[in-house]
């Protein structure tokens, strides 16, 4: 069976997750898998760009490096990146065939979509010297946390996935920080209590926790900002976190020649007048609103029903000339009438999305699903 056919049998989303399943199955096949030096990235936002910045630093330092991210926007191959290139169909199929020889049929069937693809990624990364793994959900119980790691990076943490991680910020932070083992770097946070909780968890777990300012001097910050002047401020902070990681790993990096290309879908200039961003929570909305401060753009939007779209739209209101709702056929999406009600309450003009006007500026925002539908719809 092909990989695409195999994955098509697995649901992408679950209301309940068996957190013991993957560790149990992995123990049975671990002897077959060589795990490279692994950097684990945990947080609510910024994992994608931080991971790609670090992967490129490692690559330019002469190491063979893999980067695992999720979800993909257009094609599954985006999730598994090696040495500057997305994985090929042939590579994925070969890895799938190999993995299926190690798993018994019951285990292969039981693994979730994300659990299976995480194992698949590590099979693809067998010849890598370093791997950058992004947590998909949380940290402590995430599929990516089964592998030993040399370092954990903690990107900005805020509210998201409360149904799995807890309703209060401390619970969310603890779930993410419980993934750290030997040493970790805490990136700049928007909420001070995140710093307090992270320090507390690190002490409990007897882990070395670096604050980013311990590793990156004011002079280096200014050099990084100059190098990444075309990037929004939050992405410059992600670059600084990746640079701090390189320092801890004792990887030599020349700031003047760092690769600052942002990953596709992360406040990405899709065309001259269209920016796409896969953010889907209030923390992401704050970063985007800050990046567009002083401008008014047309916001092409939709949201999953379980996201705090009322708070997100309130945050985006200062930069929204109006909102255009991109219709999506997905049972997880918010009801159109509920989105309308929130927009009316916030006094934000809106209408259904139809087409792009060449002389207007657009921001496509709301989730990977929204960006995927926009890109595949050929609206640009």
Structural commentary:
It is a single chain. This protein has 380 residues and is an alpha/beta fold. The chain folds into two domains: 255 residues, UDP-N-acetylmuramoyl-L-alanine:D-glutamate ligase, CATH 3.40.1190.10; 109 residues, Protein-Tyrosine Phosphatase, Chain A (Alpha-Beta Complex). Helices cover 41% and strands 15% of the residues. The protein has 16 helices and 14 strands. The chain is globular, with a radius of gyration of 20 Å. The two termini are 36 Å apart.
Report a brief summary of the structure.
With 380 residues, the chain is α/β, with parallel strands linked by helices. 41% of the residues lie in helices and 15% in strands.
Structural class assignment: alpha/beta
Gyration radius from CA atoms, angstroms: 20 Å
Average pLDDT level: 94
At CATH's second level, what is the architecture of the largest domain?
3-Layer(aba) Sandwich
Low-confidence stretches: none
Please report the first level of CATH classification, the CATH class of the largest domain.
Answer: Alpha Beta
**How far apart, in Å, are the first and last alpha carbons?**
36 Å
CATH-level-4 superfamily name of the largest domain: Mur-like, catalytic domain
Q: What is the β-strand count?
A: 14
Shape call: globular
Largest sheet strand order? 4-3-2-5-1-6-7-8
Query: How many domains?
Result: 2
The sequence of SSEs as H and E is HHEHEEEHHHEEHHEHEHHHEEHEHEHEEH
């Amino acid at each position: 069976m092909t990989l695409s056919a195999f994955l098509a049998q697995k649901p992408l989303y679950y209301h309940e997750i068996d957190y013991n399943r993957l560790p149990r199955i992995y123990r049975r096949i671990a002897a077959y898998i060589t795990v490279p030096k692994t950097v684990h990235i945990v947080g609510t936002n910024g994992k994608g760009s931080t991971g790609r910045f670090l992967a490129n630093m490692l690559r330019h330092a002469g190491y063979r490096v893999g980067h695992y991210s999720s979800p993909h926007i257009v094609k599954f191959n985006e999730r598994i990146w090696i040495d500057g290139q997305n994985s090929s169909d042939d590579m994925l199929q070969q890895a799938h065939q190999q993995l299926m020889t190690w798993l018994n049929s019951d285990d292969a069937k039981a693994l979730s979509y994300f659990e299976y693809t995480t194992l698949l990624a590590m099979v693809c990364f067998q010849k890598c010297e370093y791997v950058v793994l992004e947590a998909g959900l949380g940290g402590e119980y995430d599929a990516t946390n089964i592998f030993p790691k040399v370092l954990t990076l903690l990107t900005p943490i805020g509210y998201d996935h409360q149904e799995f991680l807890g309703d209060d910020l401390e619970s969310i932070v603890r779930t993410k920080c419980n993934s750290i083992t030997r040493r970790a770097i805490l990136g700049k946070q928007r909420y001070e209590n995140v710093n307090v909780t992270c320090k507390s968890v690190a002490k409990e777990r007897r882990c070395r926790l670096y604050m980013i300012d311990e590793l990156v001097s004011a002079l280096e910050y200014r050099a990084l900002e100059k190098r990444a002047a075309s990037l929004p401020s939050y992405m410059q902070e992600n670059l600084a976190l990746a640079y701090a990681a390189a320092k801890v790993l004792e990887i030599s990096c020349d700031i003047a020649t760092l690769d600052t290309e942002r990953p596709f879908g992360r406040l990405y200039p899709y065309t001259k007048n269209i920016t796409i961003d896969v953010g889907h929570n209030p923390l992401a909305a704050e970063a985007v609103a800050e990046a567009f401060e002083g401008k008014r753009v047309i916001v092409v939007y939709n949201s999953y029903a379980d996201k705090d779209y009322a708070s997100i739209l309130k945050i985006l209101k200062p930069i929204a000339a109006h909102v255009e709702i991109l219709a999506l056929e997905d049972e997880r999406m918010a009801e159109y009438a509920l989105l309308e009600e929130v927009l009316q309450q916030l006094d934000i003009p809106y209408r259904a999305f139809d087409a792009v006007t060449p002389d207007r500026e657009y921001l496509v925002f709301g989730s990977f699903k929204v960006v995927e539908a926009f890109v595949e719809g050929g609206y640009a």
